[in-house]
Amino acid sequence: MLRVQVPPGPYAPGDTVRGQVVVDQDVSARKLLVSLRYVEKSPDYEECAVEVAAGPLAQGDLRTGATVDFALELPSDALPGYVSSHGSLRWEVDAWIDKRGLDPHARVELQVTAGAHTD
Q: What's the pTM value of the predicted model, to 2 decimals?
């Protein structure tokens, strides 16, 4: 129903993550939202430790093929991603449609490194 498109990165703390949400089928919606989330995951646990949300990107029904741009800033103290055999910590872009019933989500993982870019 939704796809999130972002450049692959890597990203650093304070970087702006720009991308698009693409609607793959018509949907009756209240609004379209997007956020950056720092998520802790293990085989039996998932928790969002930090969330950076934007206001609604769109309101009302969404049509197939619609694309909506977004830009969200990683916190200046954003921690890098980490993966072990026991679980992971990672940043992701989460887009979802607020509608009646279950809200469909589309998520894409971001590669976030330690420290600021020196470009």
A: 0.88
pLDDT band at 116 (very low <50, low <70, confident <90, very high): low
Q: Please answer whether residues 11 and 90 qualify as being in contact, where contact means their C-beta atoms are separated by less than 8 angstroms.
A: no
For residue 109, give both structure tokens. 């993982």
From residue 21, give the alpha-carbon distance in Å to each of 7, 41, 73, 80, 99: 13, 24, 16, 24, 16
Question: Whole-angstrom Cα distance, residue 33 to residue 84?
Answer: 31
Question: Nearest-5° angle of CA 80, CA 85, CA 87?
Answer: 55
Residue 40, judged by CB atoms within 10 A of its CB (0-12, 13-18, 19+), counts as middle
Helices (DSSP H) in the chain: which residue ranges? none
Cα(61)–Cα(19) distance, integer angstroms: 21
What is the arithmetic mean of pLDDT over 80-88? 92
